[in-house]
Amino acid sequence: MTSGTPQLRLHNTLTRQKAEFVPLDPANVRMYVCGPTVYDYAHIGNARPVIVFDVLFRLLRHVYGPEHVTYVRNITDVDDKINARAARDYPGLPLNEAIRKVTEKTEAQFLADAEALGCLEPTVQPRATENIAEMIALIGSLIQRGHAYEAGGEVLFSVPSMPDYGQLSGRNLEDNVAGARVAVEAHKHDPADFVLWKLSSENEPGWDSPWGRGRPGWHIECSAMSERYLGQVFDIHGGGLDLIFPHHENEIAQSRCAHGTPMMAQVWMHNGFLQVEGQKMSKSLGNFVTIHDLLATETFGGRKWPGEVLRLAMLMTHYREPIDFSVKRLEEAETLLDGWYRAVGDISPDGGLLCADALEALVDDLNTPVAVGALHALRVEAAKGSEAAKRSLKASAGLLGLLGSTATQWFSGEGVATQDVEARIAARLSALAAKDFATADKIRAELAEEGIALLDYKDPEIGERRTKWEVKR
User: Fold this and answer.
1) DSSP state of 245
2) Cα-flanking dihedrals φ and ψ of residue 148, to 5°?
3) Is the model's pLDDT at 178 over the cut of 70?
4) I want to staple 204 with a disulfide (CB 3.0 to 4.6 A). Which of 110, 200, 405, 425 is the partner?
5) pLDDT tens, residue by residue, 315-359
């Protein structure tokens, strides 16, 4: 742990308490966060855990050293929703090829969105389809230990076989409904039992297994991937409140019963729900907003928003509290950022001491609203010309993933921040790599309309395509 850093305290959903965080191994602090199912653009609610756990990743790296923290965020690229989207969007293609097109395009967009939001790349981003062997092995262990059974063309987890099932969500066995994405069927021994493996038809993706050609259930994916990259027991597991039941509860059941361990992760963290302009977000209400919409279109508030504005708007509310995402909130965040950038100018954070009040707030269960307030107070001194305050503000904001540009870059694009432009360029390069020239040309044209010119070149050192950009006014 870095000397002089206050003790980190985190709220644990499992214990319902906030306590000092003591890693299992300070030389290898391990965190797993559930990532996207790549069948459609990620919505603004999906952005919240991406941002929240990026802040925690940054904080852990500061406390324990970057080389001592492993952050895994998965990509779910096998799912019935993906199958349905592939069949809808590419009806003339074989399903496997259509699925590949959907998942590659959607994953590239998600990664571009995460970059635009100022998020660091996780240590590992495993795909479910690259870990099928690990899932099959885990299911085999559950059957051998008497916690799973074959029935009706599926392998199911026996919930009654785990006497203390439900500790995370606080649900009794009698309260539980089937935890898988399938209806309750007569072949289940208990209505709460959930699917681990299901058989695939000729028109569905599948892999050979001891139980026939099939595909994994939703929950087993994360149990297998977290074990592969973090071990049977690790430090922190995160996600949104909506994942507590059934997903995280079932992850715990699978992992503990397969390995005979008393826990899966010692700390469980969950961010609160998000609503839009005071209402639950839904397509039926017409307020379903994607990250891409906010960054690249004028569908929310009649304008595009820089990724850094979205990030700060999220961090102005404590991660465990519900958040009302609104145009007013975005405007408030942008005003704050404008003031901070004017105060620091183009100064480097090198040599800047972290703001003690901001750091103290962050180690207190990621109290980002208090940290933001501390940075705003520091802005006053920076605006008066204090070089030390400028560097401190720049360095301290960096711990929140903010002030990643210079003031010149921030104000030069007339509302288009550097992170937004670079994320869209990354999406264009992904499209070019996939030979999706229509999408690549569309992105170039959109940027050109905003006065941003692109120059493609080949990096001679690594032999890969790169793109430079500049604002043309």
Assistant:
1) I
2) -150, 160
3) no
4) 200
5) 999 999 999 999 999 999 999 999 999 999 999 888 899 999 999
CA distances from 310 to 93, 218, 307, 369 (A): 37, 30, 5, 14
**Tokens (6 digits) for 88:** 């809808």
Under CATH, domain 9-271 is a member of which superfamily? HUPs (3.40.50.620)
| Structure tokens given for 363 | 């180690």
Residue 247 assigned ligand-binding role: yes
Q: Tell whether residue 283 is among the known ligand binding residues.
A: yes
**119 annotated as a binding-site residue:** no
Instruction: Consult the annotation and say whether 355 binds a ligand.
Output: no
- The string of pLDDT tens digits covering residues 408-446 is 889 875 445 555 677 788 889 888 888 889 998 989 988
Domain boundaries, the chain: 9-271, 274-403, 418-471
> Which string of DSSP letters, residue by residue, matches 6-68?
PPPEEEETTTTEEEE---S-TTSEEEEE---BTTSPPBHHHHHHHHHHHHHHHHHHHHH-GGG
Q: What angle do CA 174, 179, 181 make, to 5 degrees?
A: 145
Share of the chain above pLDDT 90, in %: 75
pLDDT value for 228: 98
Q: In angstroms, how far is CA 251 from the centroid of its own chain?
A: 18
Residue 144 has pLDDT above 50, yes or no: yes
Give the Cα separation of 257 and 323 in Å (integer): 36
**What's the pLDDT at 461?**
45
Residue 451: both structure tokens together: 């006065």
Query: How many Å apart are CA 255 and CA 260, to the nearest integer?
Result: 8
Confidence of residue 174 (pLDDT cuts 50, 70, 90): low
What's the CA gap between 444 and 23, in Å, rounded?
Answer: 46
338: Cβ contacts below 8 Å, ≥ 6 apart: 410, 411
Q: What is the pTM of this model?
A: 0.85
Distance between terminal CA atoms of the chain?
A: 48
225 SS3 class: helix
